[in-house]
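WARN retry 2 of 3 for item q-0093 after timeout on previous attempt; input resubmitted unchanged.
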Amino acid sequence: MAKYYSISSSKLTLKDINDIIFNHKKIKLSDDVISNIKKSKAYLDSKLSENDKPFYGINTGFGSLYNVKISKRDLTKLQENLVMSHACGTGDKVPEVIVKIMLLLKIKSLSFGHSGVQLSTVKRLIDFFNNDIFPFVYTQGSLGASGDLAPLAHLSLPLIGKGKVTYQNRLVNTTTVLKKFNWKPIKLEAKEGLALLNGTQFMTSYGVYCLLLSHKTSYLADIVASISLDAFDGRIDPFNDLVHLIRPHAGQLKVARRFTEFLKDSELINREKEHVQDPYSFRCIPQVHGATKDTIDFVEKTMITEINSVTDNPNIFPDEDEIISAGNFHGQPLALAFDYLKIAMAEIGNISERRIFQLVSGLRGLPAFLVDNPGLNSGFMIPQYTAASIVSANKQLATPASIDSIVSSNGQEDHVSMGANAATQAYSLIRNVERIIAIELFNASQAMEFRKPFKSSNFIELFLKAYRKEVPFIKKDEILHDDIEKTIQFLKKYDINDFELFLNDYGIKASLLENE
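OK item q-0093 returned
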């Protein structure tokens, strides 16, 4: 396995990012990328020396101050002022794994040679990446339109020797780290501050990580739902290929075939049933889970396009002798994708909670609330409450952020995407779905004990055997919080075969997702 990954003109994929981030690879620039960066910078310097024509953000003010001309002697100060003044983030700390992806994606965007930055600036970002130096970035502050201005300002502050970073699990002043590595602050030149702050790397980094989480959570939802189906004495008929081939949505087919495989040798699923139909939360699993999988695939395509794009402004085109101020920093494609992902993942939690409800309702030979002597024992009554509470919270988080816009910069930036809010909402929502799925497993495993001596499939029995090492059968009332938390951790650590998880070109190791 190569120690370094070379940033080149080749497309960066989710598989690449997973490999780089979670296998702790270092990065370097290919020769063609170095040439692109130098060519763009030389062209910009030449253009500025030839005439006094105003170029937005290069020798003018920013936002509604675009008409204010800046003298050549103040261009460095202009860029440093931009970074400092825009570092207005607040809220929670962005997880370090996402900050590391931000560094990677900013380097990738600058590598195309349309940004006019110094090679030394890109190399310093690489230094931070390769030495696990993580700028302290806040979750709040971006409108997702003129780039992720505030988060990217905090990402960029250490370049000029300011702000704080996390290094070796300690939060320290940037000056401490610069001194340790004998680095001097970067002296930003024309346009560099704008190139660093304009861009969608905050949103896209959350997007990449949310996709990794979504793939794994979606797969785990299938496993847990198959346990619930068997524990509820459900029918396998609705998963028959014949049904799905006459409505051949890819995700629907995938889920139906997965359940058939999971449960093929189950005594429970194959025994004769007294009931003709199951409730929708069981019968329509392929349609609901499958639709979410199709949504994840759509969002993935959007994110792959974005991470291989130039999203700062203005854009420099040396070969065409053009410097164009436009709007590639606008996050609308991402905002819409995040909202779509939020809704789709919320539905995984929604239908999971309905199965939880069915399991504790005293139906099909199961005791009320899945406990002996109900009445004296409340059993699994309240975990369903908890799941319902989280589902409700997710409905609020899933409210589209992209339909909102607030005017900023004195009216110059009059439509914004709110994609950054959608991104952080998606992260919180998917984490919530992990908790709901864990509560379903907690319930389904309990219900399965009441089906003995009948057994489920070999796969499910092995899964439950591993789970029982962490969480025991509940015989009487006790504090269930601890068992729910153990269940959440069990699912986070559960290793899934790459091919089974994705069935596509992105063989991402789900077992590595705890590294944050």
